[in-house]
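We close this part of the discussion by returning to an individual protein. Part of our work consisted of pairing the sequence of a single chain with a tokenised description of its backbone. What the numbers capture is local backbone geometry rather than side-chain detail. The amino acid sequence and the backbone structure tokens for this protein are reproduced below.
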Amino acid sequence: FCCAAIDAAQQKIAAQQKAMLEQAQKPQVAEDGNSDSAPAAPNIGPSPEDIAALQKQSLDTLLPVLRLEAALFLAMGYDGFDGAGLDAAVPVPEGIGTPLTSLHVTMAKFHAGALDRAVGGANSVESLSEDLGQAGKISVDRASIGDMKMRDTAMRLLNGDPLSMAMLDGANFGAIEFNGIGVIVPAGGTARVDKIALSGMAFDHSFLKSFGFSVGGFKQNVADLDPAAQEGLRKFHLKTITANLGLNYQWDPDKKTASLHDVAVSVAELGSVQFNADLVNVDPAAGLAGVPGLAKATLRYQDATLINRLLRASADERVKPAD
């Protein structure tokens, strides 16, 4: 009964959100009722207060489910387990707002480490494949999640604390990595990513204290892109794109300082940009009064062939025959 009531409430909120969006997209009718007589003021859509109210309703609806999951999480404990040879196919019902028509998941091997009342739980998966039917296919050679520390957060949920960033204080997560990712999109194109990683995520003082993120070896054949993207890249004479990006963030709540280091974006065929910054007066609790200041920053660009390709593109434009 509880789950059915929650599902009904979520459907009601979703319907309200849909109605607000549809109303925002409708043209405004002039006061005389004739939409063609004069242009009316644009509809700016739902107000921030309306959006905030719906968000609160959504959170309040989810809270009983989160409390139930917290109770189960705090009651759970095991030394570890392993599995192999998963092969499951699930039909996706129509009318649930997703382009998926079916889901077929296969996995060669699974390992779960020890979990004790929301602490631990590292696990890994090998040779994971998700066939999304008309939506494409995703494959991962290996995925892993490090140990987590969520006991205090689960206890706050179970005790009925209001949902806020303070609920996450003390929580942290081990490295999350996906290696050897392949994506096949419905149009037939393919993309490959060597590694996606999220590391060092921790929370303190009602704020995100640290995290790192990186994408390595994203490889895309230009010929597999849609025609508009191919045309945009035509002047660079690129056949492939090999991209990497990453960033590392650290916040010291006692010193009220933060650092953004190794913020980097690179395309091997063109060049790379790297940004580093040290911030002061970083105090989320101060609100608007605590505007962060910049202590030091560096920006570096290293060229591979971008400049030459731009010069070549400019020359091609100059010699292009007139229509």
About this structure: The chain has a mean pLDDT of 83. The CA atoms of residues 28 and 42 lie 7 Å apart. The longest helix spans residues 48-75. The radius of gyration is 25 Å.
